[in-house]
């Protein structure tokens, strides 16, 4: 039976998962592939800590170039993370004529165009299924299963850490910081969780998905991004009372060529399927003009789910090698000259949830509503709570669909009022999900 050798750079959480899967499912993979995938070399700087697997029979090195320059290794797997030296390693491997697999979402969202172009020119394959939503095969779905469709809408819960925090806040009424510390202890949040809670990780993933949708790079800088750090238990409580749940949502809409791409906390109807996605799970809704609504759900991160996605890329590339049909896995071609313009934040139209912190005195509500009316912003409903929170009375308001530019200007004036004691909390609402 033919053997295909691979080299792995980075033996962290995902790298360990890849090794585990290749070892425990060795016979299954051989039967499906008709060949043996052999780990020929593993590069990492530190092999001293316990990974829960035996390293005795693995060919180890601390020099990644030993993997990249080995002529016996046709596939290089990069699982070290970060932009550099990961980008240099990938590009060097491609220049050496090697096929590559990566789960590095931050790298692909910023330098993917350069890496894909290099792979196209060298006619080598590149697999990156593990870069978005862990074990959910969302990359392959867009690239292959939905390739005949014009995709016009995506709603996604793409970050398990943020979703876990919001789930626990909803179920237990705890504050953000308390749940974040709990998530760290359980291993659901990194020691530095900023990429997750500020929405950056979700933006990187949405950038990759949209680059596949359009066959052209959509930069993370073009995607409006807002995190969950300001979400208060009061917002969770009143969202529930109003029939909503709060999720950190990746949103893409293409309406007659006008494109919105944004990531932010969002109120979604409690009876929608997305509202029931709890804990560290991910889910993605995609609407295609031919297929209609589709839903993808599962574990979005972790050793084994992401390792599963990486190994699936290894199997696909190995099949291409066996058939002599390589160079087919580049997601789009450099010749694509489509011009894509993404709406600026002030051009969004949305419904909004607003929470004001105001003094408990007559006339406050009339001052606030007067400023909203000045900007032609229509109020749908108001709830004023008599009980004070930190010396202020919260006022909750839902407003009808309005232009973000005018809402921002109105809130700037409202927050300057002497009777308003804190910055107004704004959360956008999506009532019409595609489920």
Helix content: 25-40%
The appropriate CATH architecture of the largest domain is 2-Layer Sandwich
What is the CATH topology assignment of the largest domain? Answer: Dihydrodipicolinate Reductase, domain 2
Any idea how many domains? 3
Order of helices and strands: EHHEEHEHEHEHEHHHHEHEEEEHEHEEHE
Low-confidence stretches: none
Class of secondary structure makeup: alpha/beta
Classified by CATH, the class of the largest domain is Alpha Beta
Q: pLDDT average, as an integer?
A: 92
Give the gist of this structure:
This protein has 435 residues and is α/β, with parallel strands linked by helices.
What does this 3D model show about the protein?
By secondary structure, the protein is α/β, with parallel strands linked by helices. The chain folds into 3 domains: 3-134 and 303-323, NAD(P)-binding Rossmann-like Domain (Rossmann fold, 3-Layer(aba) Sandwich), CATH 3.40.50; 138-299, Dihydrodipicolinate Reductase, domain 2 (2-Layer Sandwich), CATH 3.30.360.10; 345-429, Alpha-Beta Plaits, CATH 3.30.70.260. Helix content is 36%, strand content 25%. It contains 14 helices and 16 strands. It has helices at 13-24, 26-33, 64-68, 86-95, 105-122, 138-145, 160-172, 176-186, 194-197, 200-214, 233-241, 303-323, 364-374, 404-415; strands at 3-9, 36-43, 60-61, 75-78, 99-102, 126-127, 151-157, 224-225, 244-255, 258-269, 281-288, 292-299, 349-358, 379-384, 393-403, 425-429. The strands form 2 sheets. Strands 7, 8, 9, 10, 11, 12, 13, 14, 15 and 16 form a 10-stranded mixed beta sheet that branches.
């Amino acid at each position: 039976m033919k053997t295909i050798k691979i080299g792995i750079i980075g033996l962290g959480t995902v790298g360990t998962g890849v090794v585990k899967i290749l070892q425990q499912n060795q016979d299954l993979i051989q039967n499906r592939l008709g060949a043996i995938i052999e780990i020929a070399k593993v590069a990492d700087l530190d092999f001293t800590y316990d990974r829960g697997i035996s390293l005795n029979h693995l060919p180890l090195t601390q020099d990644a170039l030993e993997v990249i320059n080995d002529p016996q290794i046709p596939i290089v797997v990069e699982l070290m993370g970060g932009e550099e030296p990961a980008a240099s390693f990938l590009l060097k491997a491609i220049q050496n004529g090697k096929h590559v697999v990566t789960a590095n979402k931050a790298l692909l969202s910023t330098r993917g165009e350069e890496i894909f172009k290099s792979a196209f020119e060298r006619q080598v394959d590149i697999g990156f299924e593990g870069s978005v939503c862990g074990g959910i095969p969302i990359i392959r779905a867009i690239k292959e299963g939905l390739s005949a469709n014009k995709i016009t809408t995506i709603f996604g819960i793409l970050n398990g850490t943020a979703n876990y925090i919001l789930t626990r806040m909803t179920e237990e009424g705890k504050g953000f910081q308390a749940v974040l510390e709990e998530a760290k202890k359980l291993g659901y949040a990194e020691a530095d969780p900023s990429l997750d809670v500020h929405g950056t990780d979700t933006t990187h993933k949405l950038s990759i998905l949209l680059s596949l949708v359009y066959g052209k790079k959509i930069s993370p800088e073009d995607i409006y991004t807002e995190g969950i750090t300001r979400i208060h238990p009061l917002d969770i409580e009143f969202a529930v009372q109003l029939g909503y749940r709060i999720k950190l949502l990746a949103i893409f809409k293409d309406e007659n060529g006008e494109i919105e791409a944004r990531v932010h906390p969002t109120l979604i109807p409690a009876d929608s399927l997305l509202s029931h996605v709890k804990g560290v799970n991910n889910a993605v809704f995609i609407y295609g003009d031919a297929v209609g609504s589709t839903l993808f759900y599962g574990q979005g991160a972790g050793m084994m789910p992401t390792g599963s996605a990486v190994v699936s890329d290894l199997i696909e590339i190995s099949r291409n090698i066996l058939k002599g049909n390589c160079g087919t896995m580049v997601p789009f071609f450099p010749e694509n000259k489509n011009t894509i313009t993404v709406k600026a934040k002030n051009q969004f139209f949305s419904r909004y949830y607003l929470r004001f912190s105001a003094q408990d005195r007559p006339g406050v509500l009339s001052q606030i509503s007067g400023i909203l009316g000045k900007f032609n912003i229509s109020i749908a409903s108001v709830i004023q709570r008599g009980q004070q929170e930190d010396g202020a009375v919260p006022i909750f308001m839902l407003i009808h669909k309005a232009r973000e530019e005018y809402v921002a200007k109105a809130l700037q004036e409202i927050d300057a009022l002497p009777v308003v004691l804190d910055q107004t909390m704004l959360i956008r609402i999506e009532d019409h999900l595609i489920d």
